[in-house]
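Before a colleague's protein record goes any further, I have to sign it off. What it holds is a sequence and that sequence's fold in C-alpha cell form. Would you go through it and say whether the fold makes sense for this chain? The record follows directly below this note.
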Amino acid sequence: MRGLDYVAAVTATGGGRTVWLGGIAVPHRRLVLRWLRRQALRLADGHGRHLPPGSPWLRARDVRPVTFHGSDAPEGLRAWAGDEGRQDEAICALESGHPTLLTVVDPAVGLRVTLAGWPVEWPVGWPVGSAHQPPRTDPETAAEGFVPPRHRREEN
C-alpha cells in the first residue's frame, strides 16, 4: 500500500484565533486539489443555508461549516474552484513540491478562510530551522496548532 504523500487543510482565522475546519491526508496531489475544490464549493454553497451533504468517499472528511457575513468570500471560493488556470497553478505547485494556498476574506467581520495543500516531504534544499519550516503533516495531530503560511495572493 502506498503512503499518504499529501495533506490538505482548511482553517478560519478571526479575532486573532485560528480554528481548524478540517483536513485530509491522501496519496496523490490530484486528490488534494479535488478535495480542496470540493471544500471551497461546499463552503461557498453553504453561504446562507445548510451545507450540502458530506462526501461519500472513504476517509474524505468534509470541513465544518463557516458563516460568512458577506458574499465576497463565497464568491472568491467559487471563482478559485472554477478557474482552470488557477487549478493548473495549484497542481504545478504541488508537483514541484511546494504548498498551494488560497485565502479568502470576509471583510464584514475580518474572517479569513485558508485552503492549503502540501506534500508530506519538503523538497531538498528548503531551509530548515527558519520561518520556512514545513507544517506538521501527521493527519492525526495536524489539527492542533496548524496555521498555514501566508500566501502572496489573497482574495478580497
The first helix runs from residue 29 to 45. Residues 126-156 have pLDDT under 50 and may be disordered.
